[in-house]
Amino acid sequence: MSQRQASIRNLALSGHAGAGKTTLFEALLHAGAAISSAGTIERGDTVSDHDPLEREHQHSIDTSLASLDRDDCRIQLIDTPGYADFRGPTLSAMNAVETMAVVVDATAGIEHGTRRLMQYAGQRKLARLLIVNGIDRVNGETLAALVDALRDQFGPECLPVNLPAENGTKVLDCFFHDTGETDFSSLADAHRQMLDQVVEINESVMEHYLDAGEGDLSREELHDAFEQCLREAHLVPICFVSARTGVGVEELLDLTARLLPSPTEGNPPPFMREQDGDSEPVLTVADPDRHVLADVFKIVNDPFVGKLSVFRVHQGTVRKDSQLFVDDGRKPFKVGHLFRLQGKEHVEIDEAGPGEIAAVAKVDDIHFDAVLHDAQADQHIHLAPLDLPQPMFALALEPARKGQEQKLSQALHRLCEEDPCLQVEHHKELNETVLRGLGDLHLKVALERMKQRYGVDVKTHPPRIAYRETISSSAEGHHRHKKQTGGAGQFGEVFLRVEPLPRGAGFEFVDQVKGGTIPGQFLPAIEKGVLQAMESGAVAGYAMQDVRVIVHDGKHHPVDSKEIAFVTAGRKAFLDAVAKAGPLVLEPIVNLEVSIPEASVGDVTGSLASRRARILGTDTLRGDELVIKAQVPLAELTDYQTELKSMTGGQGRYAMEMSHYEAVPGGVQKRLCDAWRPHAEAV
């Protein structure tokens, strides 16, 4: 295996908003001599937050990449946004790294983002690292309590790999060393605990350790066992830093270079091959001489460079002039220029091998999560999809000035190219364009970027909740479409049955026509009509889901039967069946976590109950802070931020994510159906 691949370390910095990721990113680059001085968020001169909107808002909105050299290693860093509204870019970075570091604010402790990111990284089988930041602002007792909380929350495999000393002004390694005075705990005890955890992963190392003692273990044995622990989630190291003062930053770089997995050591990415409805794993090898497999995890529509596609090479080598295919495309593109990203700077390079992150410009066919390869035999290969949160917040948009409809459409397309959690919908029946995102801030920033970058200003309307429709029972439907206009007529007759499917199953179309009563060439037309009705909704104007449609009989005319006739017959037969099948309107239910002072718990739980919430439980954090966990209809939370601020004196905060859909109460369904009926009758 190439020494070049063995010397690469890929590390993403994640964590709750305000944990200090960007400041730590700067401190690491400065300590690694990649920059002459560390920038600050307040001055707006950091390497990572280089977008004008990031400098204006003073927090990260997108991922940023930079690299440094340390002890013959190339460390490639990715700074990620902390706000849940920008979770899409954060999770996308997981496809590019072997290790996800979750930064924890020593003052705030474990927050919602901490828990979710640890969970996401574990599901993706990444090595995980907990970085406690801000050790200069708290005492040893607080840090000891935080370590206990991390172990309670994430498991006993979370162990310190170093400890703060001299009131947070230095840190001491406790993996290779066992003597020294620390701010809490005993270095000897921490060393023994870490060593015991590491050696037990490998039977031969453990036997060697038990027979000969620690002193006889080589550093190579310890490294290999440590790396295996990370790969198998048997160990989550905890390290301590102060990004502001630089304490612990050198030690973090040493840990990264010496102990974190390289592309040859990390768990292989979950590539899959899809063919004929079957899926099988594809094992990649970090070998520069094999055929190319790379995954696009970031798209940037740069006003000066054009479309920039950022990818991680997992196998093979991408060079200037390489011919690469995109997904299942049959026409390759030629790599003209190849770049390495250093913040906003694009450094031209000649090649990128396994483990390296690079970018190509101006290739229109590339999209987020596309697989780049150099062999047509590698068609139908993709990475297992990320569990991205569903965009639940919506705004209806229209250009502020007439004549900009096309410009708006193009701008929205480019924004959605960059962010997998932004979605655009066009509702023909309402003549409405809807932008969906993960929260108010997500949508606000998207609109600001659209105005700043593309010069498109918009008017917005109150968000529409993403209701859905379905059925609760089986029913038969029938429609005969017959139209005679003096010339050629139209005729098509359809008998079908609808059946409910489990939640999330989608749509099934089944042909059970016998005897040729409906010729096979008209079945796609019937399906088209059914899908038109499902898209427009049957009772309240919302898209339908989880329905099986079985076409079993009908009639045709040898002259007058045409595609349009069966589109109409299929649509109206479907609507006839749905009306008899107990139609339901479904609403999105979110998992809500509300962090509040203990004194506000009565007001907050009462408010949630009035919003049809189901309280799932409460967790006590440090001090007098509580976290209330609940499931709540999204429609009940449109003004929640204002009320929560009022109830808690500005101290409350909340985070939410999509859970599932369930039927709305009867009164809500009647209101939604009554509001839609005039439009349906007009159509």
UniProtKB/TrEMBL annotation:
Highest taxon listed in the record's lineage: Bacteria
Domain Tr-type G, chain residue ranges per copy: 6-264
Bias type Basic and acidic residues, positions: 42-60
Alphabetical list of Gene3D superfamilies matching this protein: 3.30.230.10, 3.30.70.240, Elongation Factor G (Translational Gtpase), domain 3 (3.30.70.870), P-loop containing nucleotide triphosphate hydrolases (3.40.50.300), Translation factors (2.40.30.10)
InterPro entries linked: EF-G-like_DII, EFG_II, EFG_III, EFG_III/V, EFG_IV, EFG_V, EFG_V-like, P-loop_NTPase
Ranges where the record places region Disordered: 42-61
Record's keyword annotation contains Nucleotide-binding: yes
Keywords on record: Elongation factor, GTP-binding, Nucleotide-binding, Protein biosynthesis
GO MF entry, a single one: GTP binding
CDD domains tied to this protein: EFG_III, EFG_mtEFG1_IV, EFG_mtEFG_C, EFG_mtEFG_II
GO biological process: ribosome disassembly
Hydrolase as UniProt keyword: no
Function recorded in the entry: Catalyzes the GTP-dependent ribosomal translocation step during translation elongation. During this step, the ribosome changes from the pre-translocational (PRE) to the post-translocational (POST) state as the newly formed A-site-bound peptidyl-tRNA and P-site-bound deacylated tRNA move to the P and E sites, respectively. Catalyzes the coordinated movement of the two tRNA molecules, the mRNA and conformational changes in the ribosome.
NCBIfam families in the record: PRK12740.1-5 (NF009381), PRK13351.1-1 (NF009891)
Protein name per UniProt: Elongation factor G
Species per Swiss-Prot/TrEMBL record: Oleiagrimonas citrea
